[in-house]
Amino acid sequence: MKHTKFQGVYTSTSERTIETAKLLLGERGTQLIHEENLREISLGEWEGPTHEEIKVSHAQHFQHFWESPHLYEPAGGETFQQLMKRAATVLDKIVHQPLEGNVLIVTHAVMLKAI
To answer: Which GO-annotated molecular functions does the record name (predicted)?
Structure first.
């Protein structure tokens, strides 16, 4: 990617993805487009506790999250189906932008899997 010119760089609104995009771009100066719909899956009550704590408090849900996503039911968060819909919406938006050439998307693990 070092020598690739990007006409658009989309990031989630997370500082982590914004900083990663800046590192990837280096001195190219391409404008970043912050896109809320590229944010990571919302984990609801799981935001904050460690994996080990969640394994104890939500054992079956935790197993479904990692091994059977179609069975995962979030505790106040987002389902995989909701995330997939959000991913499709944001990709459709990006594809229909009036940019020609390479586009870089910097986002999170579960969103990348959805894409």
So the answer is: phosphatase activity
Give dist(CA 22, CA 109) in Å, integer.
Answer: 18
pLDDT in tens, 53-75: 999 999 999 999 999 988 998 88
Spatial separation of the C-alpha atoms in residues 20 and 96, rounded to whole Å: 24
Domain range list for the chain: 1-42+79-115, 44-77
Q: How far apart are CA 18 and CA 39, in angstroms?
A: 11
Q: Contact at 8 Å (CB) between 39 and 13?
A: yes
Task: State the fold for domain 1-42+79-115.
Answer: Rossmann fold (3.40.50)
In SS3 terms, 29-86 reads as CCCEEECHHHCCCCCHHHCCCCHHHHHHHCHHHHHHHHHCHHHCCCCCCCCHHHHHHH
